[in-house]
Amino acid sequence: MNEMSVREWQARFRAGDFSSRDRAVQCEAGWYDWFCRDDALAGRLKKLSSVVLGIKSPFILDNYYVWFKNNCPVNGPLYDDARFEPLVGERDGKYFVVSLDSPHEPARWSLYTERYGYDAPEFCSGNVREMTRYIDAIAPELAKGYLPGFVQEKEAVARYVLQHEGKAAYCIRREGEHLFAYQSSVDWKYRAVAASASIDEAPKEYPAVQAEQYEGIYVFPSEAPAQGKEQDAIQQAWHRKGQER
């Protein structure tokens, strides 16, 4: 795999350097791991190329290289992703992955970032242009190592879930401004929550009276959290004591 800049990759792809189905050519283009047939890589690369070619941010173009992986999930068909790595130094929160047609995601294009975590995508879209616009928009943040507010909000939601359910959430998805949905590791259901640094920014359907604060962030639940076996046992014991009295 040749670690060329994204800018150089764009120029070479447009020049037709990666159009051959030859395995060596596709490895030079950036394929690193795959489960499909070798002669299918060129066609899959062409589909993925739209997200790489659409990036315009000079920081991404000149400071990253891209490589590709064909994934084989336990359930569902094969799908591909493009992985963007810094050319020099450590990842340091700058690494990100764009997946295409994953059977586990709600939209065709999904962006996973190191800064948000790998349990859920930071951003999803059915439109590749919208995806590349988002990547270009976050490039200055990646360059400076800046963490947007929703990252801290997600961490507060994670603390809330661990505090009440005794287990970490399986995943925490962004659902909009200050809005999240977490999948419980206790009953595997999704629950909607809001999170904000200001108690006045909660949506109307999330009562401020139920808010809990974690590291300066308010978490507003929409419903009661799941109860683990230990919590159920405690409640049942108290219920029995009440009956005995």
UniProtKB/TrEMBL annotation:
Where is the region Disordered? 225-245
Q: Which CDD domains match?
A: AcrIIA11 (cd22818)
Specify the protein name: Uncharacterized protein
Q: Which organism is it from?
A: Candidatus Allofournierella merdipullorum
From which lineage does this chain's organism come?
A: Bacteria, Bacillati, Bacillota, Clostridia, Eubacteriales
